[in-house]
Write a structure and sequence with these properties.
With 373 residues, this protein is of the alpha/beta class. It folds into two domains: 190 residues, Hypothetical protein af1432 (Orthogonal Bundle), CATH 1.10.3210; 141 residues, P-loop containing nucleotide triphosphate hydrolases (Rossmann fold, 3-Layer(aba) Sandwich), CATH 3.40.50.300. Helices cover 51% and strands 8% of the residues. Keywords: Nucleotide-binding.
Length: 373
């Protein structure tokens, strides 16, 4: 089954397809806490949520794309509960810590294998990750900041509508009040001007600064004079990063981990400490001189990427991220054609852990899922 074929199916057809998949069968075998989910196992709840979507008052006004995104968000929102569920030995209560975080990765992997386009896949994966946020808005110290942050990661309208379906897709009587709480998410997002679009910051640097501050000020507009532009290239091995740079940023000096590794005579499997140290020094030299440059490495993990972005920001660089992700078959073919190819199992493992960049990390973001070189 491919993504295009799935999108020709009815909701019942999608459910039938899902029930043939191992991740769905694991959901059907996964118990939930009776106080929060008296309806039963994870798959029973998921089917109830799917059934609630067409009952939403807003459903007829949604575009086909929005309906697709909500349908697959519902399908995958609890997909990682079988991977995270545990029973408290003292109370007997069932809990599934961080199931939404792991669910993002599972949803991304399944959708990638189906051939889902990058934009739609990431919309769904991020909604899976953050699907529980609206229910806890009133517990936040700065609830307005919460809806503003989310508006640059997901569509707050779709997040709110999914939260309604998620809450209604259960049998527990005590769950009526949380639905009332969900409406505050809509009201606060509407008031902040970010219910159906990202929050309109005064400048891109105001947005960038907001997401980096420990105590962010929503209305702070920082002085906007940059020392240079640092372009961080991200993508799996074989995604075409060198080719993109040669075609689009040919005049920039490039700090490349692959080149540094070669200069040092190291293999990708060797200790990479010396490589990172040398790359940091080369970046600092360029940053101190005020020269714009590109940093070329895999950069597919948010935490790893963040260390380099923090370095660039410390030198007052304007930060551009370019993320490349051709179809996996194309990527593997391009990798095999390289002189320093990476073993396919390593690439597949990196793909499973990949976290594509978002707008909260940079001043500008370029994404490409072209056919490659």
């Amino acid at each position: 089954m491919t993504w295009d074929q799935l999108n020709l199916l009815s909701l019942d057809g999608i459910v039938d397809w899902a029930e043939s998949q191992s991740w769905c069968q694991a959901m059907a075998a996964c118990a939930q806490d009776a106080e929060w989910h008296s309806e039963g196992d994870v798959w029973t709840h998921t089917k109830l949520v799917l059934g609630e979507l067409p009952k939403l008052d807003e459903w007829p006004s949604l575009t086909p794309h929005e309906r697709t995104v909500l349908t697959y968000t519902a399908l995958f929102h609890d997909v990682a509960k079988p991977l995270t569920t545990e029973v408290d030995a003292e109370t007997g209560r069932v809990r599934s810590p961080k199931h939404a975080v792991k669910g993002e990765h599972v949803a991304r992997a399944v959708l990638r294998d189906l051939g889902c386009d990058l934009t739609t896949r990431e919309e769904i994966a991020r909604l899976v990750r953050y699907h529980g946020r609206p229910a806890f808005l009133l517990e936040r110290d700065q609830p307005t900041h919460e809806v503003v942050r989310m508006s640059w990661l997901v569509n707050n309208r779709l997040l709110y509508l999914f939260a309604l379906a998620d809450t209604r897709g259960r049998d527990t009587d005590s769950m009526t009040r949380p639905e009332e709480n969900l409406h505050y998410w809509k009201l606060m997002a509407e008031e902040a001007g970010c219910y159906e679009q990202p929050y309109p910051f005064a400048t891109e640097h105001a947005r960038f600064t907001f997401f980096r501050q420990r105590e962010p000020n929503l209305h702070y507009v920082p002085h906007e004079v940059f020392a240079c532009t640092a372009t961080l290239i991200a993508g799996l091995p074989g995604s075409g990063k060198d080719t993109w740079l040669s075609r689009n940023r040919s005049g920039l000096p490039v700090v490349s981990l692959d080149e540094i590794r070669g200069d040092l005579g190291l293999e990708p499997t060797d200790d990479q400490g010396r490589v990172a140290q040398a790359a940091q020094e080369r970046c600092r030299e360029l940053l101190r001189s005020g020269a714009s440059f590109a940093f070329n490495a895999t950069n597919t993990m948010r935490q790893t990427r963040g260390r380099w972005l923090s370095l660039f920001a410390d030198y007052n660089a304007r930060i551009e991220i370019v993320y490349l992700e051709p179809p996996l078959e194309t990527l593997l073919r391009q990798n095999n054609a390289r002189s320093n190819s990476v073993p396919e199992p390593v690439i597949r493992k990196l793909a499973q852990r990949c976290e594509p960049p978002t707008w909260i990390e940079c001043h500008s973001l370029v994404t490409s899922e072209g056919k490659g070189q």
